[in-house]
Automatic annotation (TrEMBL):
Lineage: Bacteria, Pseudomonadati, Pseudomonadota, Alphaproteobacteria, Rhodospirillales
Annotation: DNA-binding region: 32-51
Pfam families: TetR_N
Record protein name field: Transcriptional regulator
Protein's organism: Thalassospira profundimaris
InterPro entries: Homeodomain-like_sf, HTH-type_TetR-like_transc_reg, HTH_TetR, Tet_transcr_reg_TetR-rel_C_sf
Highest taxon listed in the record's lineage: Bacteria
A single GO molecular function term of this UniProt record: DNA binding
Keywords: DNA-binding
All copies of domain HTH tetR-type, residue ranges: 9-69
Length: 206
């Protein structure tokens, strides 16, 4: 990599770190590009050489955190674990991040709910490697007979993500960011889903 490319990468990383620091307050509006530039030690205009909009900058911060947690989770995972244990292992790294940076996660939840660009959140999950990682775990579990092979992996992933987001919201509302408590909540929800809600197969309407 050239010296110029290295410098550009270093500047981009400084901006991301400064933005993450500003977002610790949990208030997206107070994290102005002027303040981010000041903390990064760059001109405000430099931010927009690296990120087209403030939203893109925030989403890149989100993606970087996701990628870090996923990489650590996958790298330290025991291949002999069952599907739920593997899933919980990855989730535990995300919950640990939430406990360390609750303000950042407040902004993340706001962005996931109210981001103005359609598909932005899905793009972040895809670029961070989250979608591929979860899909791989699901497909492996279906092949091994742990999960219903007749269900589309995409639908299983969406269902699991819904449970994860509910867990985050539930614990953020009570300001309980204990990693073990959050894991326990998610595991209970997943086990209910795995066992199934129906006492017997419901009759489909004619």
């Amino acid at each position: 990599m050239s010296i110029r490319a290295n410098q550009r990468q270093e500047t981009r990383q400084k901006i991301l770190e400064a933005a993450r620091s500003c977002l610790e307050s949990g208030d997206l509006q107070s994290a102005s590009t002027r303040e981010i530039a000041k903390r990064a030690g760059v001109a405000e205009g430099t931010i927009f050489h690296h990120f087209a909009t403030k939203e893109e900058l925030v989403l890149c911060c989100i993606g970087a955190q996701m990628a870090e947690a996923i990489e650590k989770g996958l790298y330290t995972m025991d291949p002999e674990w069952c599907f739920v244990d593997k899933l919980m292992h990855v989730a535990s790294y995300r919950f640990a991040q939430i406990g360390l940076h609750p303000g950042v996660w407040t902004v993340i939840m706001q962005q996931m709910a109210f981001t103005p660009r359609k598909g932005a959140v899905n793009d972040v999950m895809k670029s961070s490697g989250l979608i591929r990682a979860i899909d791989d775990l699901i497909e492996e579990a279906q092949f091994c007979g742990e999960l219903n092979p007749n269900l589309a992996p995409t639908m299983i992933r969406k269902s699991l993500m819904a449970l994860f987001l509910f867990t985050v919201h539930e614990h953020m509302s009570t300001q309980n960011f204990d990693c073990e408590d959050m894991c326990a909540t998610l595991r209970e929800l997943i086990e209910v889903q795995t066992v199934g809600l129906w006492a017997s197969k419901p009759e489909l309407a004619a």
